[in-house]
Amino acid sequence: MIKHCHNNHTIYQGDAIQILKNEISDSSVDLIFVDPPYNIGKDFNGLLDKWETDELYLEWCYEWLDLCLKKLKPNGSFYVMTSTQFIPYFDIYLRSRVNILSRIVWSYDSSGVQAKNFYGSMYEPILFCVKDKNNYTFNSNDILVEAKTGAKRNLIDYRKNPPQPYNNEKVPGNVWDFPRVRYRMTEYENHPTQKPVALLERIIKASSNQGDTVLDPFSGTFTTSYVAKKLGRKSIGIEINEDFVKIGLRRVQELTEINGEKLIREPKIYEQKNIQQPTLFEPE
Ligand SMILES: C[S@@+](CC[C@H](N)C(=O)[O-])C[C@H]1O[C@@H](n2cnc3c(N)ncnc32)[C@H](O)[C@@H]1O
Q1: What Cα–Cα distance (Å) separates residue 44 from each residue in 29, 87, 110, 221?
Q2: Counting atoms of ligand 1 from 1, which one is nearest the CA of 45?
């Protein structure tokens, strides 16, 4: 295990279960966001996201799910993702341990052909849970979105006395539309399952306050810690892969070098000299 501390932002390189067990105090974290390997065969820099059996994957997940709940404060919030095929198991496991307040669908479009003989997968599920449904942070005013229907058409709500125009803003529902991180987006890093800044912004703004501690045990490109820092929260990120940890050191701790190695974002193909930016084809 390697630990890098910088101001209020800690990055651990190592195994999530070991670090949760040995390094993080019980009941110490305000918000945990977990985006684990999904057991669907992605290649995380040589580490294959595929367990021998579904049972073994779930056994592994239940161990870190329990640890996350142990590390969460009594008024803390917990967001967890996995693939559509495994989220029902998480749901059943968690519903007797915490309060699942929302079953969120993160929906996105794709320019590529997803499937020809069945309906392609265009969403990822997220469970939003709290330990105490009478005592948790939810800053609804910080995440308001445009209320399209009534306000756009200048409708009047005659059920109110006196009648009033419809609101222009509302708390988002449980279907969230955010584009996936694409190669040409400025936030793109070299990782197969990077989550968008916008998605983490909504979660961190809603479910934590300035100065709170946000933990992500499978940090990948450290989107969670990056956004937590931007929003004045403290962060703890854990990641097993050294190359991804280097992304975190650059993105979150703003290091330019580690052990003599320069930490720079790889230039994109079209940023390299003499190569024109593509206009027609957008690689995903
Ligand atoms: C789905 S990705 C997370 C992506 C991340 N949310 C982001 O925005 O970039 C899961 C990450 O877990 C890491 N990982 C896999 N097994 C791990 C383990 N046992 N402990 C810590 N990290 C692990 C992988 O290297 C991968 O980067």
Answers
A1: 27, 21, 22, 11
A2: 25
Domains and CATH numbers, the chain: 2-137+174-271 (3.40.50.150), 141-171 (no CATH)
DSSP 8-state code for residue 122: -
**Pairwise CA distance, residues 257 & 24, whole Å:** 27
Q: Tell me which residues have their CB closer than 6 angstroms to ligand 1.
A: 15-16, 35-37, 44, 47, 191, 193-195, 218-221, 223, 238-241, 244
Atom of ligand 1 minimally distant from the CA of 191 = 9
Per-residue model confidence as pLDDT tens for the chain (284 residues): 999 999 999 999 999 999 999 999 999 999 999 999 999 888 888 888 899 999 999 999 999 999 999 999 999 999 999 999 999 999 999 999 999 999 999 999 876 767 889 998 899 999 999 999 999 999 999 999 998 776 777 888 899 999 988 888 999 999 999 999 999 899 999 999 999 999 999 999 999 999 999 999 999 999 999 999 999 999 999 999 999 999 999 999 999 999 999 998 888 888 776 665 555 554 44
